[in-house]
Amino acid sequence: MKRVNVHDAKTNFSSLLAQLEADSERIVICRNGEPVADLVPHQCVNRTKPHSTLGRIKLGYDPVEPLAAEDWPEDAR
């Protein structure tokens, strides 16, 4: 884990990003020796994978089947 002060981080931001891409190691930005922020690599999340709980849900009907006229409430016909 690399530590840099705010002034160095501001001055060398592009090179810090390049280091982060190359090493994937966290960089801690400090002010007066105290940590203020963490510069961390981005982690992509696969949002196309369905949730495991949703795969266990079973429907007793076809949700895309059109409704017949008698299936609608009287006031909605």
* Strand content range: 15-25%
Q: If you average the pLDDT, what whole number results?
A: 90
Quaternary state of this entry equals single chain
One letter per element, helices H and strands E, the order comes to EHHEE
CATH superfamily of the domain at 1-42: YefM-like domain
Structural class per helix/strand content?
alpha+beta
Instruction: Examine the coordinates and then state which fold CATH places here, giving the name of the CATH topology of the domain at 1-42.
Output: YefM-like fold
Q: What is the CA-atom radius of gyration, in angstroms?
A: 27 Å
Notes on the structure:
This protein is α+β, with helices and mostly antiparallel strands and 77 residues long. It has a domain at 1-42: YefM-like fold (3-Layer(aba) Sandwich), CATH 3.40.1620. The chain has helices at residues 6-11, 13-23, and strands at residues 2-5, 27-31, 34-39. It has a three-stranded mixed β-sheet with strand order 1-2-3. 0% of the residues are buried.
What are the SSEs and their pairings?
Blueprint: E1 2-5, H1 6-11, H2 13-23, E2 27-31, E3 34-39
Short overview:
It contains two helices and three strands; from the N terminus they run βααββ.
List keywords for this structure.
single chain, 77 residues, alpha+beta, YefM-like fold, 3-stranded mixed β-sheet, 2 helices, 3 strands, 22% helix, rod-shaped
